[in-house]
Amino acid sequence: MPAQAYAGKECVCQFRKGICDQTCVQGMLETPFYIACLKLTGRRCLVVGGGDIGLEKVEGLLACDAKVVLVAPEAIEPLQELAAEGSIEWERREYRSSDLERTFIAIAATNDTDVNIGVYNDAEQRAMLVNIVDVPPLCNFILPAIVRTGPLAIAISTAGASPALAKRMKAEISELFGEEYARLAIMLNDVRGWAKGTLPTYQDRKAFFEDIVNGDPDPIQLLRDGDEAAVLELIAAAQRAHEPTTA
């Protein structure tokens, strides 16, 4: 249950119930979400709200090379520092609907229900991505917990049912899929060009990579043992085995 939505508390969503009756979270677990990875490099992304949650969202966007614009009359010191060093653009004022122009994603993290509803409605009118933190009916996308290791990113979502469970899963997955998986991903990427140029069909390329990933010896265990040379030989052997024969 989101922290801002439970029976007896003041309603914070567009249903304007006065006192929350949990209308906004009914059916939340049955909502089918389309899982995608977004390329944010250089894209303008808006964060409304200069508190701790705003900082969390800003840092997540910066990690993906987004062009982050913060709109807030006041901001906590770490956000001020990011603005001072030029990492983000800070509009020190209240939110305006025009802030959404040329914007790819909008995230609102304020404690003002009217502002949150305004950001959501303005974004929906523009058919753009919008997330109002902790208010499920004011979101057309949700932000899962992310495990990042090199080029690997693993998303964990409980559809908002339990952030605590998602946090536990994130910690366990981080232990299970460590640096060796990221290293193998990089090594496999290095031979993608060879595979595309040499192996004529999708099925051929699929078999080539699966033979490496599921190979004997196990490439992940080899990397855990520090034997990268053996993994390179495993890849080379797969190349020899799959290279088309010439008549």
Describe the structure in your own words:
With 247 residues, this protein is of the alpha/beta class. It is built from 9 helices and 7 strands. The chain has helices spanning 52-62, 77-84, 113-125, 163-176, 179-190, 192-198, 202-213, 219-224, 228-242; strands spanning 44-48, 67-71, 89-91, 105-108, 129-132, 145-149, 152-156. The strands form 2 sheets. It has a 5-stranded parallel sheet with strand order 3-2-1-4-5, sandwiched between helices. Helix 2 links the parallel strand 2 (67-71) and strand 3. Helix 7 (202-213) packs antiparallel against helix 9. The protein is elongated. The termini are far apart.
Features:
247 residues, alpha/beta, five-stranded parallel sheet, two-stranded antiparallel ribbon, 40% helix, elongated
How does the helix and strand content classify structurally?
alpha/beta
Radius of gyration: 23 Å
Tell me roughly what share of residues is in helical segments: 25-40%
Please list the strands of the largest sheet in the order they lie side by side.
3-2-1-4-5
β-strand percent reads: 5-15%
Number of strands: 7
What pattern of helices and strands is seen along the backbone? EHEHEEHEEEHHHHHH
- Determine the mean pLDDT: 89
Low-confidence stretches: 1-5
Major sheet summary line: 5 strands, parallel
Count of helical segments?
Answer: 9
Approximate shape: elongated
Straight-line distance between termini: 65 Å
